Amino acid sequence: MAKRVIITVRWNKQLQLWDVHVDNIYKWDETRKNYAVAEAVARAKQQEKATLVIYKKNGRIQEERTYPRKSDPRKSKG
Fold it and tell me: What are the E-state strand segments in 13-75?
């Protein structure tokens, strides 16, 4: 069974850029959030199992996605 990869998109206050991390290892900086999310989604789709966590600028979680959808550990509609 493959380990679930955690991918995050967070605001970096010092650099004023969006950071993309894969399993807590820094990978990319983007000036626009939509570009950072697109890069993170592309990386998540390449993994066997992945969770994408997107944060707001204030540090709160905006959205969480599971790839592929069928590997979602919870059986909820939301």
Answer: 17-22, 25-30, 50-55, 61-67
